[in-house]
Design brief:
Elements: E1 3-5, H1 18-25, E2 35-41, E3 48-56, E4 66-74, E5 78-83, H2 89-93, E6 114-117, H3 130-135, H4 145-161, H5 178-190, E7 196-200, H6 208-221, E8 226-230, H7 234-237, E9 243-248, E10 252-255, E11 268-270, E12 276-278, H8 293-297, H9 303-316
Parallel strand pairs: 5-8, 5-9, 6-7, 7-8
Antiparallel strand pairs: 1-2, 2-3, 3-4, 9-10, 11-12
Helix pairs in contact: 4-5, 5-6, 6-9
Bound molecules: adenosine-5'-triphosphate.
Length: 318
């Protein structure tokens, strides 16, 4: 186990361009003085990600948004953070300023070993072709030739591993389907072969087919990566989840298993806040307000279609 820094040290695996970074970072500045705790990512073979007693209070506010958050995750396992909107889940994944005090040997983990895919990553695509998008953040200086060459060698691997190999590298990223845009966002991170992938709402805004595709892709990626995702889509991700935590308002994180069965269609569903609700057709709570965006994609709550979707999600894990 190796600590990266006393306050955390995640950053995207491929350094985003200034424009992309501005877009990604907008609205969330961090004040070093308000943050405490530790985030560690082990070297390969050493088993896990560890977050220990991380607290954070946004500048100018009176209350902690994150309160002594601790979690750990085994290597090549899938962790899920869920909970109410605004409880601080995304903030926990965000890039932290380095505040020093690394723990020392055996091996300091570089930030390049962590890949982050933010929510709606396609909104930050800037290039005209798939190839340019993937290589956008690569170093341009002549002195970086060897590093660029190393990245180029990994490019095909990354493209294959997300199933983009049938797509021309000359394709305009904006012309890709929603699911393929997500694949591209993952490929951008995977080129640098990170050990840990942090994903913020990986299924958000996709139709049911693309969601099922991305879940299957994540299942494959889990064979080689440790993945920590923030999501409201508990049911769909459930087959992948090894550990899950609920973030409560006030910034307290509690480990909580997802209440689904191992196989077959579930009678449970969650609302926008990750709260588990009764799924039975006669339930007075069964209405559009309590459904997730996936249900809306499927026809605004006609029960038959939602049942199909639940069954489809249940099949993903088999
Ligand atoms: N640096 C900051 N300054 C001020 N407010 C902040 C800062 N960082 C986060 N916040 C606020 O903290 C709250 C929690 O945000 P966050 O995006 O982490 O929640 P979340 O649990 O991921 O929500 P959702 O599920 O809707 O994505 C938000 O109201 C956000 O505006």
């Amino acid at each position: 186990m190796q600590a990266v820094g006393a306050a955390a040290a995640f950053s995207p695996a491929v350094t985003p361009s200034p424009a992309r970074r501005r877009a990604v970072d907008s609205g969330k500045g961090f004040s070093r003085s308000c943050r405490s705790g530790r985030v560690s990512v082990s070297a390969a073979g050493y088993s896990q990600l560890e977050v220990r007693r991380v607290s954070y209070r946004p500048p100018g506010t009176e209350q902690n948004l994150l309160n002594e958050i601790s979690l750990n995750l085994r290597e090549k396992s899938f962790g899920l953070l869920f909970g109410r909107s605004g409880s601080g889940k995304t903030t926990l994944l965000q890039k932290y300023n380095d505040s020093g005090n690394p723990m020392g040997p055996p091996e300091l983990l570089t930030a390049q070993r962590v890949g982050i895919v933010f929510q709606f990553p396609e909104r930050y695509f800037l290039a005209d072709t798939v190839l340019e998008e993937i290589t956008f953040g690569w170093p341009r200086q002549n002195t970086d030739f060897l590093f660029r060459e190393k990245l180029a060698l990994k490019l095909q691997n990354a493209i294959n591993s997300v199933g983009l190999n049938g797509i021309s590298l000359e394709e305009d990223p904006q012309s890709l389907s929603g699911g393929f845009k997500r694949r591209l966002a993952l490929a951008i991170q995977l080129v640098q072969t990170p050990d840990l992938l942090l994903l913020d709402e990986p299924l958000a805004g996709l139709d049911w087919k693309a969601r099922a595709d991305v879940v299957n892709l994540l299942k494959d990626l889990k064979k080689d990566h440790t993945i920590l995702a923030v999501s409201h889509d508990l049911r769909e991700l459930y087959p992948l989840v090894d550990r899950s935590w609920r973030m409560e308002m006030g910034g307290v994180l509690k480990e909580e298993a997802l209440p689904f069965e191992n196989s077959g269609a579930s009678k449970c569903k969650q609302n926008f806040d990750g709260e588990i609700i009764d799924f039975s057709p006669n339930s007075h709570r069964w209405n559009e307000e309590t459904m997730s965006d996936a249900d809306f994609c499927l026809g605004k709550g006609r029960l038959q279609e939602v049942e199909t979707y639940i069954l489809c999600a249940a099949n993903v894990g088999q």
